[in-house]
Amino acid sequence: MIAxxxxxxxxxxxxxxxxxxxxxxxxxxxGLRGLSGPTTAVRGNRTAAVGMAIAVIATLxxxxxxxxxxxxxxxxxxxxxxxxxxxxxKMTAMPQMVALFNGVGGGAVFLISWSExxxxxxxxxxxxxxxxxxxxxxxxxxxxxxxxxVSFWGSNIAFGKLQEIIPGRPITLxxxxxxxxxVLFILAVAAAVDIAQGNHSxxxxxxxxxxxxxxxxxxxxxxxxxxxxxxxSMLNAFTGLSAAATGIxxxxxxxxxxxMIVGASGSILTNLMAVAMNRSIPAIIAGGFGGGGAVAxxxxxxxxxxxxxxxxxxxxxxQLAYANRVVIVPGYGxxxxxxxxxxxxxxxxxxxxxxxxxxxxxxxxxxxPGHMNVLLAEADVPYDQLREMDDANPExxxxxxxxxxGANDVTNPxxxxxxxxxxxxxxxLEVNDSHSVIVIKRSMNPGFAGIENELxxxxxxxxxxxxxxxxxxxxxxxxxxx
Amino acid sequence: MILASxxxxxxxxxxxxxxIGFVVxxxxxxxxxxxxxxxxxxxxxxxxxxGLLIVGLSGNGAFNKVILVIAIAFGTINVVGxxxxxxxxxxxxxxxxxxxxxxxxxxxxxxxxxxxxxEKAP
Lengths: 482, 122
Hints:
The structure holds two protein chains of two kinds.
Chain A: H1 6-11, H2 15-34, H3 38-61, H4 68-88, H5 94-119, H6 135-162, H7 177-196, H8 202-220, H9 228-250, H10 253-276, H11 281-285, H12 290-304, H13 313-321, E1 325-330, H14 332-336, H15 340-352, E2 356-361, H16 371-378, E3 386-388, H17 389-392, E4 401-405, H18 414-417, E5 436-441, E6 461-465, H19 468-481
Parallel strand pairs in A: 1-2, 1-4, 2-3, 4-5, 5-6
Helix pairs in contact in A: 2-3, 2-10, 5-6, 5-8, 5-9, 6-7, 6-8, 6-9, 7-8, 9-10, 13-19, 15-19
Chain B: H1 2-26, H2 33-44, H3 48-55, H4 62-94, H5 96-99, H6 114-120
Helix pairs in contact in B: 2-4, 3-4, 4-6
């Protein structure tokens, strides 16, 4: 079969292949339905993987004379990189892994669009013929190229920040940031409009990709570490939408459905995360908490200095041992210290003594949606001990000790009490309602939002300074001796 | 006219897929949001198909071939890595209900993912 490209290929495509694509996207949807519960989730994921295999096989069946060597090379390269990475990554490093996988997806999208551009003489006509290319194909391809490029570069920056190759704090151009972003966006769109109107110069196309790449960098660099759950979800949605656009350009229903579902999923998560932080998505994209929060935090530190009560592992152990009810509040600090297994040991030691233990998990704790749940699942913590924020908050009042491990901003009472605080209005875990609080923290440094935490100056709060993992292990050791 | 109907059909598919996506994803609990992200991540690796379709067309120059091989490699990383890592994560969740109370089974990072990768490698 000598395959004419793009739209015309598919006018003649055997309907058999279309059926395979339909089976593939039905399996994707069925697979995602499985993710609604932990017991069906493994099968759900594998169902989706089977769908993907069918889609790939269907596409390979459609190869004409075929460039089998190139295809094998690409797939072999991808497998050689992807499999070891997925096998070896630590659960604590999951956010950066997801960012990286998301980035390569975006990269594939813009590269595909670029190759289409080159193959069709700048979206002029269907290759090997003079048939004009429908303008909608051009538009969707250009959309995919821009969003894919933004997603690729944005995800790589997010990866760099999470991996701490790039500093996690916001890096901004100051007040000019929004203007720069806007100019880059307008330039990219203008280039796209120019191409759609019939400019076939590759220089313009590359210029568009460069603007989109700079925009991806400029949008993510100013975003602080704590806003990462929003950013990662948003970039995920972007890559999904760009894949759906590629699907329309190539008239491939499996790509359209899969891409759009990912777009929907990413949008839902982005919105949930933004709500859980009481921030609007535009505000986050426009550039983090910026300097304002940090300045307020510095002033706060001056006022409060000297009223912090620190404790020892032995005292903390005694406090916990004689409690009836303990709630553990994990945060990013637990992930950084890889403390989830130590926390589980501590829980078991407490349960042996008849202490009732549960975990209160804030939706944005960690660096991606559900980050803490994955870590605790890795440490074999039973589900029924995990409480979502709305269920956990009413229970703090009858909690004897709240043990905060590496969480900061999500426990800050300023979000409820101090209207001038940058995080005022954000839903928090109301740890300060419990009878006493123990906070395990490396130092008094403020969290990523750069805001001082009033909780630490509360008279019923005791601070246990140290690495989360060693501090928790010390408490467990002390407990064993009581 | 035929082209126009292709476009409208595809747009209809797009809109319907969006609604289905919202309904299905809304049912996923907070606990599973990380696996959801990495799973949907793997699914958008389906752009791999775009690379496969275009590399099969005639008329690709040397530079285009390089771009497409990279695109296919990227797509494969996305798909294979995404499904494998999701499988690893979900295995850990699956072990839980039985283990409630005491921890009979430590961790579930066993073979699990193997099958997913086999399906993918041609």
